[in-house]
Amino acid sequence: MTSAENRCSFCGKPAVARLTGPERRLCAAHFIEDAEARVFAAMKDECMVAPGDRVAVGLSGGKDSTALLLLLHPILPTLGATLVAVTVDEGIAGYREETLKAAEALTAELGVEHVIVTFADLFGKDLDRLLVGREAQGCTVCGVLRRRALAEGVKRVGATKLATGHNLDDEAQSVLMNVLRGDLPRLRQDTSTGQPGHFVPRIKPLAVLSEKEIVTYLLLRGYFRDLPECPYAGTALRSEVRTMLAGLEHRHPGTMLRIIRFRDGVRRSARSVEPVKALSTCRRCGELTSGEVCQVCRLLERDGT
Ligand SMILES: [Zn+2]
Ligand SMILES: [Zn+2]
To answer: Average pLDDT, stretch 211-237?
Structure first.
């Protein structure tokens, strides 16, 4: 017997989750409906897509991007937009093969067009080879190159928007990390507008769902897979911030959402005071950069590639 407190607020079936703001308990079916409705509402409220948009989903094959594709697949047609999946294959032995297989299986099942771009093709070498002698910088190097590779994939498929699987935890962690590093420009940087001719606007439809909610959603829909962790994963700072935020969220529910609202407030007030610094184009590759040579070209230069 399930006690009265452990029943769905809507239908009385056994509850699988308890959510706040507003306080509600949800059964499996109502949890799925609730998560989908929140993502849909955020996309409409923030005008993330317009009729005629071709939305590329950055599909790593991991849990966040899998949930993103599952959620966008039914939503986009109702908004008059179409969907295409782009996967970046960095070439990380023992890690990427499995997630790549998961990505291919999912797009085949849903009938979504799927394009794969590889580091080897774009930068002449895979990540494992690019990192020889600087393995400790793995995440940083990979992050810079992956952003470029994803942008290249988006160009190849002719998408007008890029959707990424960043969740509420990722977003709140990034805000705190920027604060802890004293990096105000980064905190202010808004990638949702794009740069004509360089990058298309980025949207983050999952930023309203916590990591825990995404895992629950995947489990309930039967899409949860235990996939390997990236061997280069995680900077020390992010994992400390993750632990701290998880504790705060547990004791003070709603903390992560309030951090996001704070960031949005900073962005709004900053926009009205100062114009955003103009960017120039890279001398080597012609992409946008704040200096003379972009980060990608500087990373590759060391290698003589
Ligand atoms: Zn229910
Ligand atoms: Zn460059």
So the answer is: 83
